[in-house]
Design brief:
3-stranded antiparallel beta sheet, alpha/beta, 5-stranded parallel beta sheet, about 650 residues, 23 helices, about 40% helix
């Protein structure tokens, strides 16, 4: 821009004149211009600035606005509050606390209340540690505003290394700069590494005077026992649904919000014991309703829930075997926006409640339960047996797992679960079926005895549910003073000489047994000193001299082979039993898993001697040469 001789700028043609800073604007002309031009309109007055109070805060969510500031504000944690009050009253406040519990029950909030209780100086500035901090002294205000220099909150998820612990230890060298006590709040402490925990041990056990640690975690089992042993541990409980609903009602009154009791009950149930989760849901429900009332129907849509009455209708249809009605209810729930997974979870919850009604009938008078569940649920539970409810529970749990698989079509999977439950609703449980068939068998014919004269038992698998009708369990073979059968001889090695026991069972054919004499035919893979080991075992167990002879006769099958053969015979006999055939016909695809003979020994055999029938008790020939005796030396090739 050009300038005149005095250095003043000269405006170029067409350019707007520069604004002079600090000069008043020229007054507006009052009449027409010099050449008859109309007078321009006067400038509009500038709008006056809207003054905003400096202390007017922005919107705070309910979870922060109504965060407890004293022990009295904590709900559902009576044990914790009572213990800490007594500790402050007696001056026995520990230097390290470990708070555990699910998310949102007040772990970090409790830690801040403890910090205020330790640092509060009272209204007059002369108070000491107290369980009822005043909330108005500079220390309380600074801690409430999260700006107290001596109350430090650390997130162990991002400060979990040894170097972070070293920095913490360095900070402990300096005394509190403002308050009475330094308080270190370590949130999610289970995220510390193993090395960090080890570096923290000594400091946690013997911290400097004027230092208090408050650790919080949702995973107590991940905190080393060495850390837990150095802290006072408090388990913060889930807040009961009834207490949560009452708490939400009080907050609605303070917020001048009208809410239906059923709506608050739904929010409390969805919170699952977490105050913070419930307040977040309540905040969302209030925002969704606008200035209107928070209604149960709106909350149900927001949470993707089905109506509780609809869940009971669905359970009644399933237990009645009405598949069409069950699918129709499912369709209506889907139209209302209910999540299929939540529907199955609600069904499982109702199934659990019905089972409790059966186990504890006095629960039906519990006023904390909704009326629909107390009246209709109790009537439904009266018609169902515990085995039927247990079967339904297992099928619902399996179905919930199927819906949670990645990529699963939730609606289709849920409908398949409902169809399965309704299909088996009118079928007797496996236990009932066995009872009926047993009674019919006793009336119609005498059951066929089990092999070896035993009253054997059966275990059949039908649709994944085992059916048992077992006799008295087999008793273990007891070592006799004078064994007379091959099973009894082999049993002497059981639990005493495991290797010899296995060899006798799988690699030895018994030939003849007589008092003090035994004739066997070992297989080629048997050890060379088997007879010597067996002789020593028999003499030690019976206190008598035994002679073991190696024979070339074939002898009886090995004990293991005899057991397999006996098991096959029992299986064939059981398969031909009328009761078993009726069960297999009632449960298509069922198989016989095992047959247990109560009269058999530990090897699956009868307790009689397992030797050839013709000469089972014959002595060896008088001129037979003993293979190895107590006072004899075995030959070189033995």
């Amino acid at each position: 821009m050009a300038s005149d001789m005095f250095g003043s700028p000269i405006a170029s043609p067409g350019a707007e004149p520069p604004e002079e800073e600090g000069l008043p604007e020229p007054p507006a002309p009052e009449g027409p211009g010099l050449f008859g031009d109309p007078a321009p309109p006067p400038p509009a007055p500038a709008p006056a600035p809207v003054a905003k109070p400096a202390d007017q805060p922005g919107y705070r969510v309910l979870a922060r606005k109504y965060r407890p500031t004293s022990f009295d504000d904590l709900i559902g944690q009576d044990v914790l509050v009572r213990t800490l009050r007594h500790a402050f009253a007696q001056g026995r406040v520990h230097h390290a606390f470990l708070l555990t519990g699910v998310r949102g029950v007040g772990k970090t909030t409790t830690a801040r209340i403890i910090a205020r209780a330790l640092n509060c100086i009272g209204v007059d500035g002369k108070g000491g540690p107290t369980a009822d901090p005043c909330g108005v002294c500079p220390e309380c205000k600074a801690i409430l505003a999260d700006r107290h220099p001596d109350v430090v909150e650390l997130d162990a998820a991002s400060n979990n290394s040894v170097d972070d612990v070293r920095e913490l230890r360095e900070a402990l060298r300096f005394r509190a700069s403002q308050g009475r006590q330094k308080v270190f709040i370590l949130d999610e402490c289970h995220m510390l590494s193993g090395a960090a925990f080890n570096a923290f041990l000594k400091t946690l056990e013997e911290p400097p005077s004027g230092v208090t640690f408050v650790l919080a975690t949702t995973e107590l089992r991940k905190v080393p026992i060495t850390i837990r042993s150095r802290c006072q541990t408090f388990a913060l409980r889930r807040v009961p649904q009834e207490s949560l609903a009452q708490h939400f009602a009080r907050i609605c009154d303070k917020e001048a919000v009208t809410a239906e009791a059923d709506a608050l009950a739904m929010i409390a149930r969805a919170a699952d014991g977490s105050v913070r989760d419930g307040l977040s849901l309540l905040d969302q429900a209030i925002g969704q309703s606008g200035a209107a009332e928070v209604r149960a129907e709106a909350v149900r849509d927001m949470l993707g829930l089905a109506d509780r009455a609809m869940i009971i209708d669905l359970m009644e249809a399933l237990m009645g075997g009405d598949i069409a009605a069950a699918l129709g209810i499912m369709d209506r729930a889907h139209e209302l926006g209910a999540d299929p997974l939540v529907i199955l979870q609600d069904l499982a919850e109702l199934c659990h409640l019905l089972t409790r009604f059966r186990a504890a009938p006095t629960l039906r008078q519990d006023g904390s339960l909704p009326e629909a569940e107390r009246v209709r649920g109790a009537a439904l539970a009266q018609r169902l047996s515990v085995p039927v409810l247990g079967r339904t529970w297992q099928m619902l749990l399996k179905g919930i797992g199927e819906l949670q698989l990645e990529g699963a079509d939730r609606r289709a999977a849920a409908e398949m679960v409902l169809i399965r439950i309704a299909h088996v609703a009118d079928m007797p449980t496996p236990g009932d079926l066995v009872k009926r068939l047993t009674e019919a068998s006793e009336v119609g014919r005498t059951p066929r005895p089990a092999p070896n004269g035993g009253g054997g038992g059966l275990r059949a698998v039908a649709g994944g549910a085992p059916v048992r009708a077992e006799a008295v369990p087999s008793q273990p073979v007891t070592a006799l003073a004078q064994p007379s059968t091959w099973q009894e001889i082999v049993a002497l090695a059981s639990g005493v000489k495991p290797l010899l026991h296995a060899q006798l069972r799988h690699s030895v054919h018994p030939v003849r047994i007589a008092p003090g004499r035994l004739e066997i035919n070992p297989e080629p893979d048997a050890p060379r000193d088997l007879a010597a080991q067996l002789t020593a075992l028999l003499s030690e167990a019976t206190g008598q001299r035994w002679t073991v002879i190696i024979s070339q006769e074939a002898g009886a099958p090995t004990l293991a082979a005899q057991g397999k053969e006996a098991e096959a015979d029992r299986l064939a006999t059981a398969r031909a039993h009328p009761l078993v055939q009726a069960i297999l016909a009632a449960f298509p695809g069922a198989t016989i898993e095992a047959v247990h003979d109560g009269a058999a020994d530990a090897y699956g055999l009868s307790r009689s001697a397992a030797l050839p029938d013709d000469d089972a008790r014959d002595f060896a020939p008088p001129d037979a040469e003993p293979a190895y005796g107590d006072d004899e030396t075995p030959p070189d090739d033995f």
